[in-house]
Each structure stands twice: as structure tokens, then as C-alpha cells.
Predict the 3D structure of the following.
Amino acid sequence: MISNSDFEKLWILYKTEGEPKGVSINAFCVSRGVNYREFNKWYYKMHKAIVPLEIEDAPVSGTQVTVEPSDEEANQDLQLKKGGIQVLIRTSDGLQIQKRGLTYQSLVSMVEKLEGLC
């Protein structure tokens, strides 16, 4: 019996290696020696609770507003430059994704990549 984390790893591997080459998930499972029915059952059990993500207060492309920051805002900017945005995602099956030092653009890129896995 394959564990949830094994199925999750298989899914990520498929999204990064199989799908770009046009390989079906069924053929990918067979090539890896995994029963497709078991994978499919796991997939629908684990991925039915995916919630869409909306980013609020995103900077608008192409517009620039020049405002002198207050001391508090300048301090927050300094902290952001030092550490950036930190993201921690934990799934119910124990998979953990953690990324630190992200800029807004790299956060958007990460979300787009994660959406591709869903």
C-alpha cells in the first residue's frame, strides 16, 4: 500500500516531468508501477478541499505612486527587505512547503506554480 506522501510525491513528479511531455497521468502511474485506480482515489480524496487563493492589495502593474513613507512604514519596508515574505503551507497528509525571503513577484510566481500542481 502506498502512503499519502508517496502519492503526493508522484503527483508533483508528474506535474514537473510527465505533464510537460504530454504523458497522461494513467500512463505515468503505470510507468512508475503504481495502480492508477489507487492514485485516482487518493487524488480525489485529498484534492477536493483546495481553496482558491486571492491576493489582496496587490501592486498594480505600470502605475507608480510616490509617497514619502512614515517612520513606521520605513521600518516595515526595512524588515521586508531583510526577510521578505514568508510562506508556510501544511497539508493534511504531512507535506510541508516553506519559503522565506519572497518578494511580491516571487510569491505570485510560487502561487502560479502551486496552482499548476492542483
In short: The beta strands are 85-90, 96-102. Residues 78 and 84 are 9 Å apart (CA to CA). The first strand starts at residue 85 and ends at 90.
